[in-house]
Amino acid sequence: MSENPQNADSDAPTTPAGPRPEPLRFFGTTWVHHDNGYALRRVGAAGGSIVAAVAGCLLLRFAYQGLQIADVGGIVGMLVVVMFAICSAIAFRKTWEGFSARPADPAREQSLRSLKAIGFVGSLLAYFFRSLTEAPGEKLHRQEYETALTQYERRRGTRTGNPAARKKKPKRK
Questions:
Q1: Is 52:122 a contact under the CB 8 Å cutoff?
Q2: How confident is the model at residue 95 (pLDDT cuts 50, 70, 90)?
C-alpha cells in the first residue's frame, strides 16, 4: 500500500500560514532571524563587493591607460574620467536609496539601468557599505514583512466563529 504524501499524519514539515519573507540575494531568508550563517554571509558579501569594486577600478585604469597610449587627447581622457565619476556617484546614490525604499517610478529606474551599469563601481561600493551594517535591503524587506504579519494577524483576529453558521437576516419586502 502506498502512502499518500498529502496525508496529515506524515512527519513532513508543513508550511506556516501567513505571509512568507521575501528572500534577499546571497542571504535567502536568513535575514529574518539572523541564523544559518547570516553573519558569515554578510562578511562574504562585503568582502566580495569590495574586491569586485577594486577589480573594476583596475579595469577602468587599464582602459584609461589604453586611451593614453592611443593619444586621443587630454580632453577625451578628462571626459572619460568625469563621466565614470558622475555615473558612479549616481549609481551609488540610487543603489543606496534602493536599499531603504521601493522606487516611486519603476520606468525611471529602468531608464537609469545603463547609467548604473556604467557606474558599477558606485553600486558595488554602496553594496559594500550597506553590508557592514545589515544585509543590503534587509531594512526595507523587514518593514514590509512586519507590516504583512501585522495585517495578517489583524485579519485573523477579527474572524470569529464559522461564517456559515451565522443567522441569516430576514429579507425586506
A1: no
A2: very high
Phi, psi (deg, nearest 5) at residue 28: 60, -130
Give the pLDDT confidence of 119-150 residue by residue, as tens digits. 999 999 999 999 998 888 888 888 888 898 88
Query: Alpha helices, DSSP H only, in 99-137?
Result: 106-111, 113-118, 120-131
pLDDT at 111 over 60: yes
102-126 as b/e, with b when 16 or more CB fall inside 10 Å? Answer: eeeeeeeeeebeeebebbbbbbbbb
Q: What are phi and psi of 6, to 5 degrees?
A: -85, 0
More confident: 2 or 89: 89
Residues 6+ apart with CB under 8 A from 45: 26, 27, 127, 131, 135, 136
Work out whether the CA dihedral 39, 42, 46, 49 comes out positive or negative: positive
If we measure between CA atoms, which residue out of 43, 49, 42, 46 comes closest to residue 27? 42
Which residue has better confidence, 86 or 1? Answer: 86
